[in-house]
What does this fold into?
Amino acid sequence: MKKVFFRKRLNAIIIAGVVMALSTLFGINRSLGGKNLQVADCFNVGVYSKQQGYTLKSIRSQLIVRTEASMNTLTVSDKYDEASDESKALRAARNRLMDLLYEEEASPPELFKANRALESAYNNLYGRLLLLDLDEGDKANLQQDHSRMRGAASQIEKSGYNEAVRQYRREVLSVFPTNILRKFCFTPEPELFE
Amino acid sequence: MKKTGRRLLFIISVILFAAASLLPAYAFVEQSEEYYVADYAHVLSSNTEDRIIKENQKLFNMTGGEIVVVTVEYLDGYYADEYAISLFNSWGVGSMERNNGMLLLLAVQENKAWLTLGDGIAEAFPPDEINSMLEKHFFREFDKGNYDKAVNSLFDKLIDWYENYYDFDINSTNTVNNPIFHAREPSPVYSHGGIRLFGFYPFAIIPFIVIGIIILAIVLSVAGFGYRRRYGYRTRFFTPSIFFFGSRHFRRPWGRPPGGFGGTSGFNPGSFRSGSGFSRGGFSSGKGGGRSGGGFSRGGRSSGGGGGRR
It folds into this structure.
């Protein structure tokens, strides 16, 4: 029976077709999956700018800077009871962002939301502290940390990550036949930081 | 109406002044107590800082040069070159007499760095050389986050540059009271034969004039020779008018245009530069020249020379 089955031309064609299809899907999964990971990893390591000839700072590194700067701001605000509510809110937002940063499964949209919450809590606290009568050392520290928060926010905007993801989607994932075949590959696509 | 206009102008001025004073102060960093190194980003080790200070003290005493290293996290919206030049000029890096200081700025969170120079050495150390030095000895480690190593490596090369430029050894036993002056800089300046008249070196254009005459002679001789051959009569050799009008004395009556060879044949007497165009080519502009008889005073300025990542 087996010998008869494998001797038939039609069966051979079917088997060859199935093998080819599976190997194609496997190949696509490997190559596309690898490429997806490479693009997604730009979130952690930074995007290489051909025009400027170096790698821009990654969003992850700047989010870490923001958590550090907000921690320093909290050390200033903890001295002033008038800002205790705002300090609590910032602490909570910061802890949320820290948990996500050190959790491998956190996606860029989740980190984006956490960053926005941090920004909002920080702005409230900063505004509150400006109204208080701080001593000179605290004022200087506050300004320095404010500069770091602002600088990190600016670097996040200039990181090029979202542009890299959009370009990848436009030039690779939307092009025939990848746009059809990728549905069978079950590989996670890079997400935008928004 | 006039009064109203003046009042309006006054009010607008007050508003503008108030608005300006409320603008967020994007201040540049302050000069540190150590002067030669300002590590605001906290990326340099204490050994590196000590080394920078000691070698700069020797360098300044010997040549007036200084290599100030500044590290910051962010540039507060400025380009790296703007930031570096502002620091350089406000701190007065390098000697006032020689204007030969350098300032290395690192913005670690922005992956940017800039090396700016005093005007006195900007020509001797052009941007191409600076960028090449930075690529080879600085950015490799800088991009990996090894800022301390990057600064150390570049600092070595910059000291070497000063040693070559001023022909001295920083490790020599000369003390503060015996500064070394035998620089290779063009302070006997005018040994190239340049006497300055009204801001430029007229004798510098003599070689070009000679070359121009030779070219003119060649062109004319070719034109004259061709002419001779065709029409079988002589032409003058150095007659400029032949260029434009042909041979006045030997024109055929049926007037084949002797200017068939074209007008000026591409030679334009104004094609070489005159005046200040030569004053830069290998001659001192006077900024770095001269010899000082004693110690140096600070106060260098930069007009923008340098290289790096903006």
About this structure: Chain B has ten helices and five strands. Confidence is low (pLDDT under 50) at residues 16-26, 175-199, 225-294 of chain B.
